[in-house]
Design a protein that fits this description.
Low-confidence stretches: none
Distance between the termini: 27 Å
Strand content: under 5%
Order of helices and strands: HHHHH
Mean pLDDT: 89
Largest sheet: none
């Protein structure tokens, strides 16, 4: 039995569209990376669309407070900052190991897994938004 969507008639439609734009900007970064010679992680963290999306998140985060959209804003912000965390940790471990060449393999695997994680987070969040559902409260 399916539960009813959380998006109520009183939801600020403009804020829902704004949240769609944020997911779209993140997805654009991922798409550009997939069709170019860049990593998903690299473009997600450093490309103008994703940086603009995070700025947009912070700019209207207070408007989403107390609504079901707050979970999407939190999801998007955490996706961006946790991606930074995973890349920093991967780099800290792999760079010293590059002296024995295994670090290059570790870095490649770390970038790949983080890229897949980013794709999952953007897709899962955007699908939930389109269905009018909040994101789970789990930290990651």
């Amino acid at each position: 039995m399916e539960s009813e969507p959380v998006a109520a008639a009183g939801t600020n439609r403009g804020l829902v569209e704004y949240t769609n734009w944020i997911y779209g900007l993140h997805a654009l970064s991922v798409l550009i990376a997939l069709v170019s010679a860049h990593t998903v992680v690299g473009l997600f963290l450093f490309s103008p669309p994703s940086i603009i999306a995070v700025i947009m998140n912070y700019a209207r985060r207070s408007e989403a407070h107390g609504t079901w959209l707050e979970s999407h804003f939190r999801w998007q912000i955490r996706t961006f900052w946790y991606a930074w965390l995973w890349i920093i940790l991967t780099s800290l471990v792999s760079i010293p190991m590059m002296l024995v060449l295994i670090g290059f393999v570790f870095l490649f695997i770390g970038l790949g897994l983080t890229g897949l994680w980013i794709i999952y987070r953007v897709a899962r969040g955007w699908l939930a938004l389109r269905e009018g559902r909040p994101m789970p409260l789990a930290p990651v």
